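Bug: token stream looks shifted between consecutive jobs. Job 1:
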Amino acid sequence: MTNVPQNAYNDLLDNAVTQLIKDKLELLFREEIKNFMEVEQSENARNFRNGYYERTYDTRYGKIDDLRVPRDRNGEFHTQLFEPYQRREGWLEEAVIQMYKGGMSTREVAKFIESMYGAQYSPTTVSNITRTVMEDIEAWQKRPLERRYSVIYLDGLYVKLRRNSVSSEVVYLAMGIDEKGYRQILGFYVGGHESSNGWREVLKDLKQRGATDVLVGAFDGLPGLEEAFREIYPKADVQHCIVHKVRATFPKIRVADKTEFLGDLKLVYTALDGEVARAVFDGFKAKWSKQYPKEVKSWEEQLPTLLTFYKYPQLTWAAIYTTNAIERTNKELRKRLRPMNSLTNIEAAEKIIYLQATDYNEQWYGRAIRGFSDPETKAVFEKMYKERYGSNE
């Protein structure tokens, strides 16, 4: 082979691989029709083999021009390896879906496929291929949820959608940590503008799908959201995101005071326990209430829900007192959506978000969040579940 040019060598290798695949497929066909004739059809069937027909079939390793597929006299046998009129293995369609998930527009995907493979894929064809995902989305959005969730996070992000005109609309996103400590995206809901009524419908859906026992809900201070959450989950605690609260306070403090003010504030939510935190806040209030009365009062009024995390095992505090986890997920979703500019419709947004959400859930499955898998933490949570909701029978 040393005298064979590299290109010729590559061609020989490709042909060998394609021939191997052809041989293996035809072997499978022969086993299929043998099983059909001897096992699947009824004993009284008057049916016999009837030779072969040839067809082309594109695979990721090359095109097979003369694939021999067996047939029967009655035309009842059909191979299970592909559909009767399928001319291509599903790898290219899968590649289309993956590129679309990565944020490429249908037009960009079509151009890429044509440049790489010579296949004439119009944007409409690409859209039709990705539309098959919609059936999966519907099933995924209706799937049953776990009964118990230690934490449910709620957060929204805005995307540009085209209806009669282009406008920003919200994607409601719900994420949970179940009793095993596994994180998962529970659902997403696209359309409209963020409101407490919108969140109420989201929470109703989560509960109807089986998420009935929740210990704490973590979210920002959107007006009416706390009331909506307590209406659906009256036995759960509410944790307002401390990071959101700090961000909201930051611009209102003079530059000269920012470091000292925020440093004193940090001592409140990094205290050893809830009792110490409230005592530290009293000192913070005495020091800063004259200079920043509105800001201090705002913290004081919201303090019960800002310090909720102290009721839970210490190893879980970092995961409970902030919605950073769901915000990071939203940030990644924005990156996927941004290259699309104005998405054509809600369906396009749902396809991208669904593909990314299922990817995340696969990555997270079986990997407990730090602190939640600790035996002592699990024992405390189990006690909380039983006290609020009874046994998990």
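Job 2, same session, no restart:
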Amino acid sequence: MRAINTNFRILASSALGWSAWYLAAACAMQPAYAAPEGVASGSCEVVVAGIMRTSDYIYRYEGGCKNGLAEGQGTASWQLRHAPDAPPTTWKGRFSQGVFLENKHTVGARRVDNTRVLLDMGSMPAPQGAQPGRLWAESRVEGKLPASACQPLGLQVSANGNLADDALARDWLDRAYAHWQSLCPDGAAAVKGGFLRVSLQRGGDWSPDSNGNIPSGVVQATKQLRKQPPEWSSYRNEASQQQARLQQDQQDAKDLQANRDRIHAFAKKTGAGQLVSLEALEKNPFRFDKQVILVAVRMAAARTATEAVVQPARRTRGDWSRVLLRGAIAEWDAQGRVAAVRVHGRSTDKATEDAVVLELVESQRCNAPNCEDFLLMPGRQWLLDEKFSTLTPPGSFRLALNHP
């Protein structure tokens, strides 16, 4: 389609949902004056920098149009209004969605916002076991220059395969950079700042949002071009991190179930029917008189080889309970323990008068701080003041769990 129009004005466009300003290009060879910015007229658009969208320039376009955008072969030119003898700025060649394709290897384009575009560099080789990907150069129209694929803001790769595999992801990054270099042999020296950001997008179903934000990508890395040889830095693989988090969650679930089984087995072995906090014992120890119960404690101070003051293994806010424990405690260290004990009311000795007295039946040293390996249950909830039956199999006893 060849469009011709004699009215050339600035067009504000939001085609495809991307907010953008485009120069309205009339499709004829005679000059016309630009309308005030914000007035929409004309039938063909070309993406151009703001300096070229002012009334200082007279714009003309001739060539193919599709859906109001320059498409296919065409010529766009800008002539200074008050310097008719000055040579015009001219873009002649291929256009895609209003974007001038300066590089011969560029096969298409996506518009991002008023100045940024994604230039389609075509298919690229894939790592072994993956399908061919696609390389995109994120670029910007600046001044009187079109967007350049060889001076990109960054590279985007439509990739596939198991991107959680760091070896595969790094292979994609290397191949993307090598492919870009093959299309732009002098590109590394032209990239501003000497850093080239490369992102791997999962598959080809991605695009900028309505605000011009390009998805961050599953994998990101930066090529430091001024180092010899150039090397990657700032590598981040969200797919790999997500997989690691999932594996950790699965392992945590197994560990928490093992905690539940461990305390059940210890209760069954010792004949204990309830886990009780020291705080509950101090309030009324006579509720548990002569019963075997479980407590989670750590030594505060040994009074003799067979008597110690103990405190909660997992001290909670406001719980500073101290209880007398009598039994074989000479080998105890500062680590917490789960202990099966009998309750013997309160002490009548003058030095420890009114302290709750526990008789040690058996204990098991905790391996984790706060006795997490006995007390932290599935759902990451703490076991506290709970009854359970030693007659039921592991996992089937009642556990009313308490949040931390």
